[in-house]
Amino acid sequence: MVHTLSRSKQESILSLLKKGLSYSEIMKRVPGVSRSTLSKYKGLYTPERTRGHAGRKTTISSTTKNYLKRELVNGSLKTAKDVWSYLNSIGHKIGYFGTVKMLHNMGFNAQIKKKKPLLKKCHMEARLKWAKAHKNWTEDDWRRMVFSDETKVNVWGSDGFKGGAGSVMLWGCMTWDGPGYACAIEDGTMKASDYVHILSTTLMDSLKYYGYEQEAIYFQQDNDPKHTSKLARAWFKGNGFKEEHTFNWPAQSPDLNPIEHLWHHLKLRLSLYEGRAKGVHDLWSRIEKEWNSFTKEQCQAYIKSMPARCRAVIKAKGGYTRY
């Protein structure tokens, strides 16, 4: 299929088609491309324009939008700027802000610049201290870590998308052997007692599923008060977790928690559905399906990046990193 062509071949073919070269001439210049592939490619990606007055905006076909979604999900396109550049390279005369609006309407939270958490001096100091404390951890150390986090998933689009129809607050965990169980947080709010209930059920079920012993693993959670409450600390102590193996991650540090990548890809996959969920129950069904599709290999790839993340934080002296 056309979509399996490398980006360089796609760009070469588009350039030659725009110059008016014949299929035979293009096949000589781009090895390994058949006439039928060129025909399909031209039909799919030749710019489609609205009829009428000159200068009207390019119409982006549903086929092209579906292609963009797939490229965003698999990481070939990463930002609104990437999408804008790509659309213009194939002849769609669309502005950058028009691209951002289009992505927003497609369900992507397209931002002009990725928003980073505010890092105060105390945050940077804590991040640097944490990274230095773990800089010598090996892959074997990190594979014993169970990462956890919460995120909000909207029925449609981002928090700022008009016409929203509810959301699900989600707790989940990730292990070296794959994603753990995930659960919805009732009413979207969590008290210390709610968190302990999640630990007693969802976390423990995850450990049991993978055959993990509490005393043998490390457990990561953010530094939220409900996570560090007396009730939560008592639960960990009473259920066989070593105190020194329960880690409270530094604040404002999503770049130090690889489960953030699962949240990111979960939301991208949900955006690929043709229509919005009919409500929170329909949304939860979609979340379950997509969460369960994450693989062990994906989780391992993200966890393997932890040594590099520590080095990046140290290099940035506790500041922002590319993660």
From TrEMBL:
<protein>
    <recommendedName>
        <fullName>Tc1-like transposase DDE domain-containing protein</fullName>
    </recommendedName>
</protein>
<dbReference type="GO" id="GO:0003677">
    <property type="term" value="F:DNA binding"/>
</dbReference>
<dbReference type="InterPro" id="IPR036397">
    <property type="entry name" value="RNaseH_sf"/>
</dbReference>
<dbReference type="InterPro" id="IPR002492">
    <property type="entry name" value="Transposase_Tc1-like"/>
</dbReference>
<feature type="domain" description="Tc1-like transposase DDE">
    <location>
        <begin position="170"/>
        <end position="270"/>
    </location>
</feature>
<dbReference type="GO" id="GO:0015074">
    <property type="term" value="P:DNA integration"/>
</dbReference>
<dbReference type="GO" id="GO:0006313">
    <property type="term" value="P:DNA transposition"/>
</dbReference>
<dbReference type="Pfam" id="PF01498">
    <property type="entry name" value="HTH_Tnp_Tc3_2"/>
</dbReference>
<dbReference type="InterPro" id="IPR052338">
    <property type="entry name" value="Transposase_5"/>
</dbReference>
<dbReference type="Pfam" id="PF13358">
    <property type="entry name" value="DDE_3"/>
</dbReference>
<dbReference type="InterPro" id="IPR038717">
    <property type="entry name" value="Tc1-like_DDE_dom"/>
</dbReference>
<feature type="domain" description="Transposase Tc1-like">
    <location>
        <begin position="78"/>
        <end position="136"/>
    </location>
</feature>
